[in-house]
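We examine the record.
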Amino acid sequence: MPGGVRCSRAASPVLCPGGWPHSLLELASRCNGFNPPPNQGPDPSLVYRPDVDPDVAKDKGSFRNYTSGPLLDRVLATYKLMHTRQTVDFVRKKHAQFGGFSYKKMTIMEAVDMLDGLVDESDPDVDFPNSFHAFQTAEGIRKAHPDKDWFHLVGLLHDLGKVLALAGEPQWAVVGDTFPVGCRPQASVVFCDSTFQDNPDLQDPLYSTELGMYQPHCGLENVLMSWGHDEYMYQMMKFNKFSLPPEAFYMIRFHSFYPWHTGGDYRQLCSARDLAMLPWVREFNKFDLYTKCPDLPDVDDLRPYYQGLIDKYCPGVLRW
């Protein structure tokens, strides 16, 4: 695309704009300066995730409409803002801003309840509180992996970083698929060819290369990820010394890193440990919130079980 960003490899027909309708390309070119409405929803990336079955999407009506409808403008505008403003400097500032975890003191269950106040206008298919999503994900994992109670808890925890949206953070700095900053975006990053052209890092001779500021196979623990609910929650868990296994931390930090766990990109940054953890992240994503069930769990009935897990792995009042 003229004026766009050249991705690190040939564009995927599933994710990149080359495989999308011409009207979508026109929308991308009009996104500069578009200010999305408030409460545009905590996860607009759901519409464009590569593992969403198109046949299932049709059953959702306009929720996963790839070519028309009011959601398309909103999703594209969110990613345009994200891919323009998520820079090395921005991410480092957010780590400094939130790294002291002085935003709020509360328990895990209080954070779950807090998400009831997060309005998701990008998801008209769901009209129940976000806390139900957490319990649905956790219960799906519990059914499939009854012997791994720590894994059940990860399902409850994984999106709690979205409390950032209730702390006044813009949606483009909280939600959506994540990617490394400090290097050129790879092909399976959503809208990779049409939304990065105004990102100042990509005018930098270092940050605009495939490896960017990193060494080959440096390990994802040494990579600066775009800022959002995944990275925040991962850092918060480390700060508060959650006694969960390493797999849990990987799941939380990288569950929205779709270009890696689903797109197959960024392997040049991965260590052997990252690749060993990849199946765990993929297993978790089978139960992530893009799959929804109309049968709501009895939250009051489930709370004692999950409170027991919280008391075991991350008890008490925590710093957020």
In short: Residues 53 and 62 are 14 Å apart (CA to CA). The longest helix spans residues 70-85. The beta strands are 105-106, 318-319. The chain has a mean pLDDT of 80.
